[in-house]
């Protein structure tokens, strides 16, 4: 497997959208147009994994954030000017690459970026029974949430868990 992790480009969005439709149930698929807006809002923290044979096979869209801020499903990114955390909004791996550690590599890449920026945490919403994956990456579920956080969490289909990793 010849895998490269690189910054996402506008021309990757169609492939990224295809990966999303493979990875998520239909209620969780976000509009392709929102990917363009998110990439424009946070171009330094959106990455793809590209395999020489498969092409773009996974992605991670994240943005500089404040600890404790949960993004609602379908919302635009609102990068924090005084960020202390990297919010991992969307990690998806295409079916052809499942079980090959691609998701882990993207998370490690994001963590290295967060550490180089001097941020103290990474946080996310775990959906579709992925909590065990995130726990293996060092994330811990936070259950004591404010009404605003609970409201944002409720926008996700099925069980959703807010998780944080101290860096």
From TrEMBL:
Any Pfam family the entry gives: Acetyltransf_1
Transmembrane segments annotated in the record for this chain: none
Family matches, as InterPro entries: Acyl_CoA_acyltransferase, Bact_Acetyltransf, GNAT_dom
Keywords: Acyltransferase, Transferase
CDD domains recorded: NAT_SF
Domain N-acetyltransferase: 3-167
Keyword check for Ligase: no
Domain of life (superkingdom): Bacteria
UniProt keyword Acyltransferase, yes or no: yes
PANTHER family registered for this protein in UniProt: AMINOALKYLPHOSPHONATE N-ACETYLTRANSFERASE-RELATED-RELATED
Protein name: GNAT family N-acetyltransferase
Organism in which the protein naturally occurs: Undibacterium aquatile
